[in-house]
Amino acid sequence: MTTQPLLNSLPLFPLGTVLFPGGLLPLRIFEVRYLDMIGKCRKGGVPFGVVNLTSGTEVRKAGAQAERFAEVGTLAVIREFESPQSGLLQIECVGTQRFRVRHSELQKHGLWIADVAILADDVALEIPEDLRHTATALRRLVDTLEERKRAQDATGSPPVRLPIGAPYRYDDCGWVANRWCELVPMQLELRQRLMELESPLMRLELVSDLLARTGIA
After folding, report:
1. What is the DSSP letter of 78?
2. Band of residue 195 on the pLDDT scale cut at 50, 70, 90
3. Number of Cβ atoms within 10 Å of the Cβ of 41
């Protein structure tokens, strides 16, 4: 992967998930180490890094395995922030750029910080004809979800959050591949490998195979 300049002392949030560029991530935060981190990130308007846990647990527990995480993660920017009660935050983030951890350090209060190299964004590539069915299927799915959301919102029920956020880029290989990677059930290790792929076209080709095997498209 082509890299850009280093970003130093990036706070990390190890999670049992993989965040893709352009993806949405809702979080409910109650651990002191992350309450403080998220508060500072929001106040400073700076991102934090989401990395996929490979061992350990999201919430610190006595006797649990030490936290270990993947070397490649994604910057997360806070776009919604609520504090319904003391000691609890509810936020929604959007993934921006991928990064590779160059050096990480566990601080005494349990927060990981890292020096990271920012990885180049996916090259914008138009979807080739033989893979356009993946975009068509995704568009139909989003249209269905939006229709259900409008129907539920009309009943006065609590607002429904869509798993995919606008702007929709149904003509772009990387965007379509990333959204399917978030939606299709798969092992975290595979999701991580797909996120790390440098070629958005290859990522979409592999997603197309997954969709065919699951009967989705």
Report:
1. E
2. very high
3. 21
Give the pLDDT confidence of 132-155 residue by residue, as tens digits: 999 999 999 999 999 988 888 888
Residues paired with 90 in a beta bridge: 28, 82
Taking CA atoms, 174 is separated from 110, 152, 168, 197, 202, in Å, by 35, 31, 12, 10, 9
For 147, list phi and psi in degrees, rounded to 5. -65, -40
CB-CB contact of 121 with 22 (8 Å): no
C-beta separation of 68 from 101 below 8 A: no
| Residues contacting residue 73 through CB under 8 Å, at least 6 positions apart | 12, 19, 49, 50, 51, 52, 98, 99, 101, 116
List Cβ neighbours of 10 (8 Å cut-off, separation of 6 or more).
Answer: 47, 48, 49, 75, 99, 113, 114, 115, 116
Question: Is the distance from CB of 162 to CB of 150 less than 8 angstroms?
Answer: no
Closest CA to 99 of 74, 62, 132, 63: 74
Which ranges constitute the DSSP H helices of 11-79?
Answer: 32-44
Answer whether 0.85 is exceeded by the pTM: yes
